[in-house]
Specification:
Length: 602
C-alpha cells in the first residue's frame, strides 16, 4: 500500500531483492547457536508467538502476507473507520464513568476535558430520582449522556428524557445512549428483563431523537469473564443480531434498528491486538448489515473502555502505563468514544487525582501527541492488516457457533458460552501462573514493602451471571495471605537466599529468586547467616558451574542449620540435598502457594 512520490523515486530501488528463504537461513544460523537445529519454515515458526484463538504472531511480515482491501474511512466495510473524517476534527469523545451521585465530580470532569458522561444508575450506582441532581449544572445540549441502568433502564431513560424536556433541550440536539442491554445484564447477573419497553424506547428515539440511541451492545461482560478477543467479537455480534431481530419484529426498519446500537469493547495493553480487534469489529458488523440488506447502515459506533481485567490492586500506579497504552490503541483503532478507567479502579471509588489522570490520558494523546490527526494510522501495515483479517475470521466463527447454539440468550442460559469463556481463561491462567504473561508490579518486580492505596469501597457487584476475573487474582490471594501473617505476627514469611560465589556468578539468579518469592509476599533475606535470617527455607543462587562444585555441600549446611526446604534457582538437575527447583517457566503460583502452606501461612 506504499504510494511512490511523483518523481518515482524508490529509496530501496538500488538494493537487490532479498528472497524470504535467505532470511530464513540467517534465522536458522542464529538459532543453531542457541542449540535449536531447525531449517526453513521451522526456523521462522520458532520465533513466532502464540496468541489466543489459535492465532500466531510471526517474526516477519511482507507483501506476501496479503489481506483483503480494507477500503476507505466512512465506506463499507468500514475497517478504516465508520466516518469519512474519522476523529480528525476534535479527537475522540472522552467519556468518563461515574457510579456515585456526586455532581461536583461530574462538573469537574466536564470542565477539564471530558466531553460525555457514562452514568451507572440504579441499585449499583446513582438512584434514578437523583439523576437530575447529578446533572445539575450540566449543559445537556452539549454533553452527551450514556446510561447504564440494568433492570431500571426504562425508568432511568424516561427520567433522562424528562430532563431534556424540562431544561429545554431540543430533541434534535440531544446526544447519548439510553443504555438498554438486556442480554448484557443477564450475562452480568443471570437475570434478564423485558425487551418490549426497550423496543418502545428505540422506536421513540428513532422517531423523535435522531442523536439518541437506545441500546448498548456491551462486550465487557465476556471480556471480564476471561474471554479472548475473538470471543468478545463473536458475543457482540450475536447480541447485536438478537437486538436487530427484536427491533425489526417491533416494526423498525433494519436501518433504524442498526442506528439504535452502540458497541462497547475493551482495550488492553496489547496495543496491536486491540487495534486489530476494533478494525475487525467494524468489518464484521458491516458484513452483518450487508447480509440484512442494509449495507450503508453498517458503520459501527464504538465505545472503548480500558480493560478492567488488566487493572491490578498491588502497585496500582503501574495501571497508568497500562491504560495509556490501551488508550493509544483505542484511538489508533478508530474508537469513537474512549473511557479510561482510573488507576485505582480495582481498589474502590476513584479519588479526584485518579479521575484527573484518567481524563488527561486522552487529552495528552489528542492535544499533545496529535494521535487523532491521522485516520487509521496502523492501516497498511502488513502485520496489522493480516492480524485484523485473521481476528475477523476467528470472531465470525465464534459468532456462528453461538448462532448454532440458538443465539446469544440460549448460549448464555445453557451454560455453553460460560464454559467456552472458562476454558479460555483457564489456559490464560496457566500462562499467568508460569509468568509467561508477566504482570509488572505483581508477578514481576513486586514491591513487597509498598504502602497500600486505600479507597472508599464500591457496592458489591451483583453475582449470578458470568464471573469477573482479574489477571492478578492468583497473586493477590498469595499476597493477602502474607498480609494476614504480617498483621498477626508482625513479620512477613521469609526465605533465605544463599548466594554462592562472586556477584558475577550469583546476581542474575538471586534477583530472579527475590522477584519470584516476593510475588507471593515472601520476604527474601540476603544478609547474614541462615540462622540469623528468621527463615525456615532457603534458595541456592549461583551459576551452573558453581552448582556442580558446591550445591551439595551448601545444601547440606543449610539443612544442618535447620532449613526445612532447599530450593535451587535454575533448571532441574541432579543435586543431592536440593528439594526443589525454581526457574523461568515454572508454575510460580503453585510453588508460592506450597511454600506458604509449609510455612504455616494460612
Amino acid at each position: 500500500m506504499t504510494v511512490l512520490p511523483d518523481d518515482g523515486l524508490e529509496l530501496a530501488g538500488e538494493f537487490p531483492d532479498v528472497p524470504h528463504e535467505q532470511w530464513q537461513r540467517l534465522v536458522a544460523g542464529v538459532l543453531r547457536k542457541s542449540g535449536k537445529d531447525v531449517e526453513g519454515a521451522e526456523a521462522e515458526e520458532a520465533l513466532s508467538t502464540a496468541l489466543e484463538d489459535g492465532l500466531r504472531t510471526r517474526p516477519l511480515y511482507t507483501a506476501r502476507d496479503g489481506a483483503p482491501e480494507p477500503g476507505f474511512p466512512g465506506f463499507a466495510p468500514f475497517v478504516r473507520g465508520g466516518r469519512a473524517e474519522g476523529n480528525t476534527v476534535g479527537g475522540w469523545d472522552v467519556r468518563q464513568r461515574h457510579t456515585a451521585a456526586d455532581g461536583t465530580a461530574v462538573l469537574a470532569d466536564l470542565e477539564n476535558g471530558v466531553s460525555s458522561l457514562w452514568l451507572t444508575v440504579g441499585e449499583d450506582g446513582i438512584p434514578v430520582p437523583a439523576l437530575g441532581t447529578v446533572l445539575d449544572g450540566v449543559y445537556l445540549d452539549l454533553a452527551p449522556v450514556v446510561l447504564d441502568a440494568g433492570r431500571e433502564t426504562e425508568p432511568a431513560a424516561r427520567e433522562l428524557l424528562r430532563l431534556y424536556e424540562e431544561r429545554g433541550v431540543a430533541r434534535d440536539v440531544a446526544r447519548g445512549n439510553l443504555g438498554a442491554d438486556p442480554l448484557g445484564h443477564e450475562a452480568r447477573t443471570g437475570q434478564g428483563y423485558d425487551v418490549a419497553p426497550v423496543a418502545d424506547l428505540a422506536r421513540r428515539c428513532a422517531e423523535e431523537y435522531p442523536g439518541l440511541r437506545a441500546l448498548t451492545v456491551d462486550a465487557l461482560p465476556y471480556h471480564e469473564a476471561g474471554g479472548s478477543a475473538a470471543q468478545e467479537l463473536g458475543c457482540s455480534l450475536a447480541t447485536a443480531v438478537a437486538y436487530l431481530r427484536e427491533l425489526t419484529d417491533a416494526g423498525l426498519s433494519v436501518e433504524q434498528a442498526c442506528a439504535q446500537l452502540e458497541f462497547r469493547y475493551a482495550a488492553t495493553a496489547d496495543q496491536f491486538l486491540t487495534i486489530a480487534k476494533l478494525r475487525a469489529a467494524r468489518r464484521l458488523w458491516a458484513r452483518v448489515a450487508e447480509a440484512c440488506g442494509a449495507p450503508r447502515a453498517g458503520a459501527q459506533l464504538q465505545h472503548v473502555v480500558t480493560s478492567p481485567v488488566m487493572m491490578t490492586r498491588r502497585d496500582p500506579w503501574v495501571n497508568m502505563l497500562r491504560t495509556t497504552i490501551a488508550t493509544l490503541a483505542a484511538g489508533a483503532g478508530g474508537a469513537d468514544s474512549v473511557t479510561v478507567l482510573p488507576f485505582d479502579h480495582a481498589l474502590g471509588l476513584p479519588d479526584a487525582f485518579a479521575r484527573r489522570i484518567a481524563r488527561n490520558t486522552s487529552t495528552i494523546l489528542i492535544e499533545e501527541s496529535h494521535l487523532s490527526r491521522v485516520i487509521d494510522p496502523a492501516g497498511g501495515s502488513w502485520y496489522v492488516e493480516r492480524l485484523t483479517d485473521e481476528l475477523a475470521h476467528a470472531g465470525w466463527e465464534f459468532f456462528r457457533r453461538i448462532e448454532r447454539l440458538g443465539g446469544q440468550a440460549a448460549a448464555l442460559r445453557s451454560g455453553d458460552l460460560g464454559r467456552d469463556l472458562a476454558d479460555t481463561w483457564a489456559a490464560r491462567s496457566g500462562k499467568l501462573a508460569k509468568r509467561r504473561e508477566p504482570i509488572t508490579g505483581v508477578s514481576e518486580f513486586p514491591h513487597i514493602a509498598e504502602k497500600p492505596v486505600i479507597r472508599e469501597p464500591v457496592p458489591e457487584s451483583r453475582s449470578g451471571g458470568l464471573p469477573r476475573v482479574r489477571r492478578d487474582e492468583a497473586y493477590e490471594a498469595l499476597r493477602a495471605r502474607s498480609d494476614a501473617h504480617l498483621a498477626a505476627t508482625g513479620t512477613r514469611p521469609r526465605i533465605f537466599l544463599a548466594a554462592i560465589g562472586p556477584a558475577a556468578a550469583h546476581t542474575a539468579r538471586l534477583t530472579f529468586a527475590s522477584n519470584l518469592f516476593q510475588a507471593g509476599g515472601i520476604e527474601p533475606v540476603t544478609e547474614g547467616t541462615f540462622e540469623e535470617s528468621g527463615a525456615s527455607e532457603a534458595v541456592l543462587c549461583s551459576s551452573d558451574a558453581l552448582y556442580e562444585e558446591r550445591a551439595e555441600a551448601v545444601a547440606g549446611q543449610l539443612k544442618a542449620a535447620g532449613a526445612a526446604q532447599v530450593f535451587l534457582a535454575g533448571r532441574p538437575g541432579n543435586h543431592p540435598g536440593v528439594d526443589s527447583y525454581v526457574f523461568a517457566g515454572c508454575d510460580a503460583v503453585a510453588v508460592l502457594s506450597a511454600t506458604l502452606d509449609r510455612m504455616g501461612v494460612s
